[in-house]
Design a protein that fits this description.
The complex is a heterodimer of chains A (468) and B (190). Chain A is of the alpha/beta class. Chain A folds into 3 domains: 161 residues, Aconitase, domain 3; 113 residues, Aconitase, Domain 2; 172 residues, 2-Layer Sandwich (Aconitase, domain 3), CATH 3.30.499.10. In chain A, the strands form 5 sheets. In chain A, strands 5-4-3-6-7 form a 5-stranded parallel beta sheet. Chain A has a 5-stranded parallel beta sheet with strand order 17-16-15-18-19, covered by helices on one side. Chain A has a 4-stranded parallel beta sheet with strand order 11-10-9-12. Chain B contains 8 helices and 7 strands. Chain B has a 7-stranded mixed beta sheet with strand order 4-3-2-1-5-6-7. Classes of the chains: A alpha/beta (468), B alpha/beta (190). Chains A and B meet through α2, α4, α6 and α12 of A and α4, α6, α7 and α8 of B.
Chain lengths: 468, 190
């Protein structure tokens, strides 16, 4: 067969085909790593029980708890009962299911517990070339290490548990080429918000995005995770970045990364993964990172985003737009800057890694949050929490008047009782500003950790470049 | 799964674009360990006021919506999270199909696995359906057509394997389990 140039997606896909797709049937795709959590797994285990099935390869599944779990220390470590009884039941059910089906669980009090998309890379489980799935749409995060990683529903969770495979049609490949240097005060979060603004919230539907170009190469691993994390907000099930020396340096020595001779073998395989120079994509888009400013959302989806100094757009006659702005209580044509803020949330699988906490602490050090404002800092994992405490970041946040919590998804989706009040404005480092996402009637403005911290200090939407 | 060959129903219309899974079923209702009873919380924040009373102006609360099994919605329906609770809630409420010009990937995949038919139509058809809530239409899975009250039939795409599963009531897990020899062979060679 003649040599055909391949994309990163092509290479990973082909290596995981148990059987290729045909006109009549999708491919049977082998899954290397399956991450599960307490919210989208119970009904999958129930399906296994109903059909008297086993977990085919328990060692390829790792369970943790993050979505509905408390972030208050007493509730996590047993000093107080979990306030939401149905959430407590999910925790108990995952414990029972993992014990019954012999799946490893990083449970509520485990030192390596955390948001599923933070701990995969942190433990070195997320690796280039792997297929990774999880019952959560932000599984796209793991693509930052050159994996093909995507979110699945609960029925598919059961498929993977029972067969280690999924039935999938190959998605199309979309190259997003990013050139130019990010300016001071402009972060990976601003970059991905600008990309989503450009592509639109369904621009990536049916595609896997490969982020490419000098700007992407210059990002560190945690920044790359922030970018890939929000691929789904452009409609793309997965986002990926070719592995390079930055990736290998990040993985080297992590507890579940290959070691010794295995590491050398793995490196050799990983170096062959990047897209061939002459490979083609079904679609391409280009972004000039040099022109990106700190970005903030003003509406009810992540595509409704502007540079922080810009005015909210006007779209007379667009009823849907008008409805979104009415929900937000914001006026088209007005600046978003200086909008009063009630809550600031620093957390989520998008922006709760150590570098994110450092970035916010840079603004908050020696300052205090505005009177009456509530700020919640929720590290992405227990390991991130300990690392932050080791360098005194917890003191910076506490001295500034913020709350310092145990890890979890927390206020990103408000399942665990960490919610924004009705009508309140939250500047949030998370990934979704949908109506009610952070609590019924809550109004979310998505931004970077720098912008969130600056807005916490002033009590209104603030360009972080004024404070750094 | 029950075979799904055809469906005749009146429509209920939610014209908004980008109706996300947090609207379909807000996250606070996901602290459940079963798939039963989610229909009660379908579109909860649009359907009920702060006291839990049904909002008369919301389309699903109107008398004409009663018994409708087809939801017509604006562009990019089901965007957002991977929660399968979204199609479970729609099915539990009584819907069997959703019509839009664009349906998000994960939602579409989840819908098909539960026998909720995702129907993507062209702009003009969508505009007409949105402007005429409550019309009776027919969906034919074998022919992949939507028949409008005028008698005009509009085609819609349906992946052949998903179509086969719907028509025959086949579930994918059974199909995958039957491939275990191939899966074993893959595991041996990789």
């Amino acid at each position: 067969m003649a040599y055909a140039p391949q994309t990163l997606l092509d290479k990973i896909w082909r290596r995981h085909e148990v059987s290729p797709e045909s006109a009549a049937t999708p491919a049977v795709l082998y899954i290397d790593l399956h991450l599960i959590h307490e919210v989208t797994s119970p009904q999958a285990f129930a399906l296994l029980r109903e059909r008297a099935l086993r977990v085919r390869r328990p060692e390829r599944t790792l369970a943790t708890m993050d979505h509905s779990t408390p972030t208050l220390t007493a509730q996590v470590f047993g000093g107080a009962p979990i306030a939401i009884e149905s959430a407590a039941r999910q925790v108990r059910e995952l414990e029972a299911n993992c014990a019954h089906f012999d799946v490893e669980l990083l449970g509520l009090t485990h030192g390596e517990r955390g948001i599923v998309h933070v701990i995969g890379p942190e433990l070195g489980l997320t690796q280039p070339g792997k297929t990774i799935v999880c019952g959560d749409s932000h599984t796209s995060t793991h693509g930052a290490l050159g994996a093909l990683a995507f979110g699945i529903g609960t029925t598919e969770v059961a498929h993977v548990l029972a067969t280690q495979c999924l039935l999938q049609r190959k998605p199309r490949a979309l190259a997003v080429n990013v050139t130019g240097a990010l300016a001071a005060g402009v972060t990976a979060k601003d970059l991905i918000l600008a990309i989503i603004g450009e592509l639109g919230v369904s621009g990536g539907t049916g595609h896997v995005i490969e982020y490419r170009g000098e700007t992407i190469r210059a990002l560190d691993m945690e920044e790359r995770m922030t970018v890939c994390n929000m691929s789904i907000e452009a409609g793309a099930r997965a986002g990926m970045i070719a592995p390079d020396e930055t990736t290998f340096a990040y993985l080297a020595g992590r507890p579940r990364a290959p070691q010794g001779a295995e590491w050398e073998r793995a490196l050799q395989a990983w170096r062959a993964l990047p897209t061939d120079a002459d490979a083609s994509f079904e679609r391409e888009a280009s972004i000039d990172a040099g022109a990106v400013e700190p970005m903030i959302t003003y509406g009810t989806n992540p595509g409704m985003v502007v540079p922080i100094g810009a005015n909210i757009p006007q779209r007379p006659g667009d009823e849907i737009f008008g409805r979104a702005l009415a929900y937000m209580g914001l006026t088209p044509g007005e600046p978003i800057r200086d909008q009063p803020v009630n809550v600031v949330f620093l957390g989520s699988c998008t922006n709760a890694r150590l570098s994110d906490l450092r970035s916010a602490a840079r603004v908050l050090r020696g300052r205090h949050i505005a009177p009456g404002l509530k700020m919640l800092v929720v590290p992405g994992s227990q390991q991130v929490k300990r690392a932050a405490e080791a360098e005194g970041l917890d003191r910076v946040f506490l001295d500034a008047g913020a709350e310092w919590r145990e890890s979890g998804c927390s206020m990103c989706l408000g399942m665990n009782g960490d919610v924004v009040g009705r009508g309140e404005y939250a500047v949030s480092t998370s990934n979704r500003n949908f109506e009610g996402r952070q609590g019924t009637g809550a109004r979310t403005l998505l931004a970077s950790p720098l912008t969130a911290a600056a807005s916490a200090v002033r009590g209104r939407v603030t360009d972080p470049r004024e404070l750094i | 799964m029950q075979p799904f060959t055809a469906l005749v129903s009146r429509t209920v219309v939610l014209p908004g674009a980008n109706i996300d899974t947090d609207q379909i079923i807000p996250a606070r209702f996901l602290t459940t360990t079963t798939r039963a009873g989610l229909g009660e919380h379908l579109f909860a924040d649009w359907r009920y006021d702060a006291s839990g009373a049904a909002l008369a102006e919301f389309a699903l609360n109107g008398e004409p919506a009663r018994g409708c099994r087809i939801l017509v919605a604006g562009r990019n329906f089901g965007c957002g999270s991977s929660r399968e609770h979204a199609p479970w809630a729609l099915l539990d409420y009584g819907f069997r199909a959703v019509i839009s010009t664009e349906i998000a990937d994960i939602f579409r995949s989840n819908a098909l696995k539960n026998g909720l038919l995702p129907v993507v139509v062209d702009e003009a058809t969508s505009r007409w359906l949105i402007a005429h809530p409550g019309v009776e239409v027919r969906l034919d899975v074998a022919a992949r057509t939507l028949t409008l009250p005028s008698g005009a039939a509009v085609g819609f795409p349906l992946e052949p394997f998903a179509q086969h599963c719907l028509l025959e009531g086949v579930d994918e897990l059974g199909f995958l389990l039957a491939r275990s020899a191939e899966i074993e062979a893959y595991e041996r060679r990789s």
